[in-house]
Amino acid sequence: MSLTPNLLPTYDDVVAAAARLKGVAHQTPVLTSRTMDEQLGAQLFFKCENLQRIGAFKLRGAYNALAQFTPEQRKGGALAFSSGNHAQAIALAAQILDMPALIIMPEDAPASKMAATRGYGAQVVTYNRFTEDREAIACKLASERGMTLIPPYNHRDVIAGQGTAVKELLEQVPDLDYLFVCLGGGGLLSGSLLSANALAPRCKVIGVEPEAGNDVQQSLRAGHIVKIDTPRTIADGAQTQSPGDLTFAIIRQRVNDVLTVSDEQLVEAMRFYAERMKIVVEPTGALSLAAAMNSDLPLAGKRVGIVISGGNVDLERFAQLLGG
Ligand SMILES: *Cc1c(COP(=O)(O)O)cnc(C)c1O
Fold it and tell me: Which segments constitute the Tryptophan synthase beta chain-like PALP domain (predicted)?
């Protein structure tokens, strides 16, 4: 697929998204920690999207996309395939906008996630991960029912919506020197780059992937999109196999660096959040702090933003990860 530059969102699109999200998404708090400041010799600012509605930033992109449907599209509703936070985001956004939503999930997805998605009024259709192709199912249902498929990251309006989290952070805390952002398919990072470049042009923005799932790092090194096998990592929100063409175009142009962290380092960061800051952060949401704690970057004396992307983790799983 060839890529024309006008398909890429700009900071103006983030500003428009923020206006749409007013009164819909929470303005999430920014926390600080003297303990971590002392440990790193820096001043850290934690943007708590784990406290966003649905427990992650993804409501921002989903709502921004659905709010721009034509009357025709609204009648048909929204379709997504996801077993994670994007599913719940689409379901809630559709409920708020009073349109139908259909989510395609693997039949072995956690019962709690299916229940949460249905709780927002979405219809859930299950498929067998090993014998059926979810994209084929999605295309068939989309054309049969006149529904619009919204992908989790490679979509102009989704990227612009995700960018509102860091726009908000930089309005709450100006003049950051560094910003660490959790990275899966790159919707959050590319939106964050649009906001950071506009509001804090000197701020260095670092994307953070799990070690086993470094598809963006590999793609940047190769100079083109690299597809990897589904990575094995506890960071289930970052098990993407490749960035999208839109997210990669923005990241490649603007990012300062992409770092990786191990699952052990993620657990260490989750433990810190729980013990010292009294907050529940899911493994993927801990990527950013794990990198700040373990990088060689000269953070001493700097003002550092840490985006906590989400907090959705079953408590049994949470206890198992931290108890080990
Ligand atoms: C989806 C998600 C990510 C990754 O976001 P991308 O836009 O795919 O890079 C990170 N953390 C959490 C909690 C998520 O739900």
Answer: 26-310
